[in-house]
Input
Amino acid sequence: MNEIIERKQLVPNIHTCTVKAPDIARKALPGQFVIIIPDEFSERTPITLADWDKRTGTVTFIFLEIGASTQRLAELKSGDRIYSFTGPLGQPFRLKKYGTVALVGGCYGIGGIYQAARTLRKMGNKVLTYSEARSSFLLYWNDKLEEASNVVRYATTDGSKGMKGHAWDVLREDLKAKVKVDHIIAVGCTFMMYKVAEMTRSFGIKTIVSMNPVMIDGTGMCGACRIVVDDQTKFACVDGPHFDAHKIDWDVVMSRRKAYLEEEIISQER
Ligand SMILES: Cc1cc2nc3c(=O)[nH]c(=O)nc-3n(C[C@H](O)[C@H](O)[C@H](O)COP(=O)(O)OP(=O)(O)OC[C@H]3O[C@@H](n4cnc5c(N)ncnc54)[C@H](O)[C@@H]3O)c2cc1C
Ligand code: FES
Output
């Protein structure tokens, strides 16, 4: 069982949690995830690794308090132990020298792009980061992203910081203004990734999104996380979670997303 070093609310409804997990910290790469079972009555919940420190043997993740398992996670305190913490899982991002890379983050994805920004910059890329939230008080890790990126641009739905609108609106403005972008990575809620994918298609820039379907084992056995990419069935847990956004069958993604909504609501009420 892994000890929680710190668990705190970053902004309303979004928490950060740092856990002692030396084996995972040693092997973690940007874009990988863990499967967490908060207590013995909880489900298996996939969560992206946002940061890690090999020296202290700790890993940090960011989560949205959204259903039964993440509510349970949000109740845990420093010193408590997580029932099961497995990882690192999934393929890391394919990071190399692209030239200029745009990273788009929303909700938990703001944390999910941080290590990619650091690594891409170290590899000699120019890193343009686009961070979005409904309002300025819901943005987090601004200082970390600003330190890791060459430029950070913000979008808020109410216009309280950066451009009024969404991250894909700011990126579209930059692309229209002929800002040179060679590669795009988006992490966050499904709708945001879909909108980024639709927008970048017409510009012909390779766009990678980090898919977040329901997962059970996380090791390619159950098939729960299947998605259709380029007319082929892929398992997000082992083949992904990162895929070419322009090859994903988004209709399948959207229809499978709400498949267990009734059960999720019952579970939360219980
Ligand atoms: C590879 C991967 C990485 C991920 N990384 C992260 C991450 O870093 N951080 C993060 O926060 N999430 C991440 N996710 C998503 C996370 O795993 C899911 O949100 C997970 O289902 C949460 O579990 P839960 O039991 O709290 O919610 P669930 O019970 O599974 O509920 C999730 C869904 O049900 C809906 N729902 C639940 N209860 C109700 C209700 N009462 N009324 C209406 N709707 C309801 C929610 O809106 C949501 O759509 C990731 C997923 C994957 C596959
Ligand atoms: S979670 Fe079971 S195959 Fe991916």
Summary: The mean pLDDT is 95. The first helix runs from residue 22 to 27. The pocket of flavin-adenine dinucleotide (ligand 1) is lined by residues 33, 43, 45-48, 61-64, 66-70, 108, 112, 212-213, 215, 241, 261, 264-265, 267-268 (CB under 6 Å).
